[in-house]
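Model it.
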Amino acid sequence: MTLAIVFALLAAVGWGTGAVFARLGLQHMRSTTGTVVSLAAGVVMVGSLALAVNRDIMFTLPVVALLWFLLLGTINYPLGRYFNFLGVHLAGVSRASPILAAAPVVAVILGITLGGESLTPFIGLGTVLIIGGVVLIVTERMA
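Modeled.
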């Protein structure tokens, strides 16, 4: 459990840092171009890492798992990253990234409805706090 939390925190650091670098890059190109460049770099990096760490397992996955990963890859990476980059380009990192952090709300809803997970008091409280934080960020007037 502790290792999972460490990985989640490292992911948060990566996404936060990535948003700043995306903003810097998007000052010189369109969001669509930034998305393609980011996806190409990600495929090379993650593909190499996956092959290095789990070469044996990768070629024995069931077809249904590959189909789910294909669906995830279609929704999350090209569409999600494009909309993320467009939001960062139009609204800035400090406004767009916290709104992107509302993704756990979607994950909670889908986890309960599709994944058979249960809503605990802590998950409910965390979801309410996330929504409250996003509302505060979105309703703040631009200076």
